[in-house]
Amino acid sequence: MSDLLRSAHPVVMGVLNVTPDSFSDGGRYAGLDAAVGHGIEMHRQGADLVDVGGESTRPGAGRVDPETEARRVLPVIRELAAAGVPMSIDTTRASVAAAALAAGVSVVNDVSGGLADPDMGKVVAEAGCPWVLMHWRGHAERMQDLATYRDVVAEVRDELRQRVDEALAAGVAADRIVIDPGLGFAKRAEHNLQLTARLPELLALGYPLLFAASRKSYLGSLLRGADGTARPVGERDAATIATSVLAVAAGSWGVRVHDVRGTADALAVWAASGRPRLAAEGAA
Ligand code: PMM
């Protein structure tokens, strides 16, 4: 798995929410067979990692207890591991991450960037696995109140740098760290778009960057119908693919998406076209 962070191609992480209430796919893969089947299908379609999550982070969502979270994800992880599917665990809890690592995941994807659980750094350092540190300001039930910024890009960059410094202090190797701007987490639509436009400022931190825009609300707001209604969540994949490819062309390491097949197809076209890169603004 160490190669994954130095992958020559953009890494595609497929979303597998084993929850009744995630905002896009909540409830669809709550049963074991449906979840395992979808994970295998995403791997077949080109997912380098299947990201298994058992707690919804949808804005406003309440917390589930750690036992419930573990009970949702562990059977799915065991079966996908047996089927040879590489996985990450989407959790903010050290106990769930440790159990998931023991059951066969190889990456910890922590939307709190280590803030939610003081033991997460130790678990990751001991496992020696990659750790996705996402920018986060608080749990889902209150995060939209925390979306206040003077300069969202500078503040997200500085707060991510603090997360990285804490991870390093906990003994996590620098070459195990991935950063993520946390689109939609304590961010309003304009914040997400500014972060997307100014990715080079986040990439300047010097770590691989995961871009996770898939089906998020700001894309729905961008694509309003003539009557002003936001585009429904299931009809945002074309926009997701467009922004994912642009993020890769700007230098992102990977993308986290629901529509693996469409994303993999688009990235295959990008690769076959000579991997064109977006010039940073101001470059000659
Ligand atoms: N977003 C969600 C869940 N997990 N993980 C990372 N690293 N980055 C994200 O932006 C992120 C995440 C919420 O979206 P979902 O409900 O569609 O999974």
Describe the structure in your own words:
By secondary structure, the chain is α/β, with parallel strands linked by helices. It has a single domain (10-283), classed as TIM Barrel (Alpha-Beta Barrel). It is built from ten helices and eight strands. α1 packs across α2 (66-82), α2 (66-82) packs parallel to α3 (94-103) and α9 (237-249) packs parallel to α10 (260-272). It binds pterin-6-yl-methyl-monophosphate (PMM). Residues 15, 17, 22-24, 57-58, 90, 109, 111, 132, 134, 180, 182-183, 210, 212, 214, 256 line the site of pterin-6-yl-methyl-monophosphate.
Under the CATH scheme, which architecture would be assigned?
A: Alpha-Beta Barrel
CATH homologous superfamily descriptor:
Dihydropteroate synthase-like
Q: Tally the helices: what do you get?
A: 10
- Going across the biggest sheet, name each strand in turn: 6-5-4-3-2-1-8-7
- What is the N-to-C order of secondary-structure elements (H for helix, E for strand)? EHEHEHEHEHEHHEHHEH
CATH C-level name: Alpha Beta
> Mean pLDDT across all residues, rounded?
94
Shape: globular
Low-confidence stretches: none
Helicity range of the residues? Answer: 25-40%
Tally the structural domains: 1
Bound molecules: pterin-6-yl-methyl-monophosphate
Distance between the termini: 37 Å
The CATH topology annotation reads as: TIM Barrel
Radius of gyration based on Cα positions:
18 Å
Estimate what percentage of residues fall within beta strands: 5-15%
Tell me the structural class: alpha/beta
Q: How many E strands?
A: 8
Largest sheet: 8 strands, parallel
